[in-house]
Amino acid sequence: MKMKKVIAAAAAVMIGGVLAGCSAGGGGGGGDGADASNCTNKITKTDAPVVTLWAWYPNMETVVDNFNKQHDDVQVCWTNAGAGGAEYDKFQTAITAGTGAPDVVMVEADRIPTFQVQKGLVDISKYGYEDVKANFSEGAWKDVSVGDGIYGAPIDGGPMAMIYRKDVFDKYKVTPPTTWAEFETAAQKVKDAGGPVFADFAANQAAFVTALLYQTGEDLFTYDPANGGEIGINLNGPGAKKVLDYWAGLVSKGLVGTADQFTPEYIAGVIGGDYATYLSAAWAPGYLQGAGVGEGADAGVWKTAPLPQWDVNSPVQVNWGGSAFSVTSQAKDPALAAKVAFGVYADDASLTEGWKNQIIFPLNVNALNNPEFINLKVDFFDGQEANKEVYIPAANAYKGMTYTPIGQYYYSAMTKQVAAINDGSATGSEAADALQKDVVQYATEQGFTVK
Question: What is the C-alpha separation between 276 and 286, in angstroms, rounded?
């Protein structure tokens, strides 16, 4: 593989930024780790070696304190280096410079291969993975794997479902569809009766569209760095064309909207009843509540149901989102750093605090098997036991995705093609063919062998 090209490509998809170092202390510390007094959290066991950590969840200080209280052999020095792209910026700079990275870094699963191909992350399969393997599902581990290596400890995920407005469904006498054919029939019925569009097919949510493509059971990518930089790309197979043609049909019939999501305008539409459903992940209720959905006039109207299937006899559960803790190649003691990666956000107190007070959906089976979590009556869903009925079964059945180092370019290319579908300049099949050609050309230019 032409590694310089791959590194340049990975850097190109990151937003430019300035490195923000993380402090370290004791016998640990990654990169240019400095005095532990610079940690955001307070370390009380000052004789223990310290592992530095970058992570952005709002409750990380509580989580780190929980870990530190339970360990005399290692302490965590936590810094919030920014959320998502802001942190990736800093980490990318540290990888390029060869210094300045923490021991452990929080990353979304789809970013792991990008950093792994630059030798920025460590395979932690030999540092205690077998001891914690049973704590997560097959799908959770696949999402943080690159080839045969494990490059992250799972934290949370986004099993997908269909959030819907019960008031709209009741008014137009439709029931939650179990198949995509039923989904279209219900959407047409609501439209014919003068109701709102049934959902939204947003060009700016490539990860969401990717999840829909995986639901046909076809793999979009294959990738194993042991195979000399070979990538399998299958973006215009029968499954992908089936999905994109389906959604292109919904768009052309005016059954779904095409607004960009995660915008004030879109949220205003959700609150205003412009959409009968919101196809999203298990973290969506927390996000929607934080944006003001479910208050006032639309309080108590939201419910959730399993994501419609192509074949109810062969259901495929899919995922949107999820993060992990990865050990960086600049960690001075990878084994100790892996202990932190596997152990942070893994104790019962942190897991419980996470799902009660944050918007995360934990993947640890200790949470998924917790009766309190299983039987939780979710206020946003008017007391529905959403975890038991929808999200936990979806999480348990999820088999994982294959991510690649060209994932961020693929997302950009997908965004362009969904926009073409939405403005009527391409059919679903045409968009799939254009997407395949674009991504294959890019991968080849970056030195990968496409099969």
Answer: 19
